[in-house]
Design brief:
5 helices
Length: about 200
């Protein structure tokens, strides 16, 4: 969190933190302040710490003081913390945008959340491509085949697209492929297959 490293022992359902420790470093990466609080609450768009013990470290030694209440400046908010406990693929787009921005500002890895964001952006396009792929099966050589055969082929194509899409996205995450490319390339490939099949029908 900027120059701060936060350790939270417990997060309650109402958004309260219990057992909070904040380690603050200076620009030379030297530990300068250690703040411990029994509890932290988010009130009026800011954090309020209760029962605070703060240790200030400098060349002269360590100074310790106790404070009943203190404000905690942090970019964190209860909504952002809910993002951490939910798998990225189940998060709404706006939560992903906010959390990716937070991770970038703290120079942390964002690949997994960017991939989830682009996957959601590509989802309507992927659905349209699947519908497009069905056209050659309706008007092509399979139109005279039994309905059961056409359904089977359609199911296999759909499963194949889903497996390829998921596998390529995970491989892209492992090998450092750009998230937008990892999320869109399977759809582009299957769109190309659909165009090729449609031309054969013509």
């Amino acid at each position: 969190d900027g120059n701060h490293f936060n350790h939270i022992q417990r997060i309650h359902r109402d958004g309260r933190f219990e057992g909070v420790k904040v380690y603050e470093f200076d620009d030379k990466h030297q530990l300068r302040i250690v703040t411990q609080a029994r509890e932290a609450r988010y009130e009026n768009n800011e954090w309020l710490m209760l029962d605070v013990v703060q240790s200030t470290i400098d060349e002269g030694g360590i100074e310790v003081r106790s404070i009943e209440r203190a404000k905690w400046r942090s970019k964190l908010n209860p909504g952002m913390l809910n993002v951490v406990v939910v798998p990225p693929e189940f998060l709404p787009v706006w939560s992903l945008i906010e959390y990716v921005s937070y991770l970038k500002s703290n120079h942390q890895a964002v690949g997994q959340y960017q991939l989830a964001f682009w996957s959601k952006i590509m989802m309507p396009i992927s659905s349209a491509v699947m519908v497009f792929l069905a056209v050659p099966f309706i008007f092509g050589p399979l139109r005279s085949a039994p309905i059961g055969g056409r359904i089977l082929v359609g199911v296999l194509v759909g499963i194949g697209f889903h497996l390829f899409n998921q596998s390529f996205q995970h491989m892209g995450l492992v090998f450092g492929v750009l998230p937008w490319l990892a999320a869109s390339l399977p759809t582009i490939i299957f769109a190309g297959i659909g165009i090729f099949m449609l031309r054969r029908v013509r």
